[in-house]
Amino acid sequence: MSKHQSSFPDTWTLAKVAEVAEVLRGVTYKKQDASNEPRSGNVPILRATNIGQRLSFDELVWVPRAAVSSEQFLRTGDIVLAASSGSLSVVGKAAVLENEWLGGFGAFCMVVRPRPAFIAPRFLAYYFQTSGYRRRVSELAAGVNINNLRREHIESTSFPLPSRAEQMRIVSALDTQLTRLDAAVAALERVRANLKRYRASVLKAAVESRFQPRPSWRARRGAIMNPHRYCSIASSPSGAADGRNPSLRG
Description:
Blueprint: E1 2-3, E2 13-16, H1 17-20, E3 21-25, E4 42-46, E5 61-64, E6 79-82, E7 94-96, E8 104-105, E9 109-114, H2 121-127, H3 131-141, H4 151-155, E10 158-161, H5 164-207, H6 217-225, H7 228-234
Parallel strand pairs: 4-8
Antiparallel strand pairs: 1-2, 2-10, 3-9, 4-5, 6-7, 6-9
């Protein structure tokens, strides 16, 4: 670890991923041994397509348990990273395993396993969501192996490292803000769903001729001020012979 003065506080250091975490390669297996459905003696593995803002556990591949070494079984706090993909937007994507899960990760992925004695796992996980990390991936993608990251690429990646207390403070603040953001996004999704249902009901009512638009305030005001309205009163059976309604006489 080394000091760096320009872009972060003097009390922080510049660390490499290899100094605070272990980088592991994924499970290799024969195509004929894999299945899209659970089988006796098989375990699920994650692929690059399972990596987004969070890990997705849909559309898993199941492989023989014997193909997965003890180190390749995921642990809570592991950061699963897409090392190879046909899409440049996918290469380098990373997400943390937040809860216990029995399974591994495929050959086109890597795992960054933080060493808790050196770094808070969630702090390192948040680093892999930063624009600085994405720039690093873009620089590497400009090389020969456009759609492929090697283990040494990740191990040599440098990032700013604060004290353990500061790491925990940053993680707590980010957790709080992102929880609020997730709640806001969920609320917006509910509003969108409600508007969609309302739109459908309005269209249905219109098609079935049950929708009667209310007249505008201008139309209602015009009906009140229209002098012909009073003529209709005068011509009613209750009107007087001289053309005036007795109720209007002074």
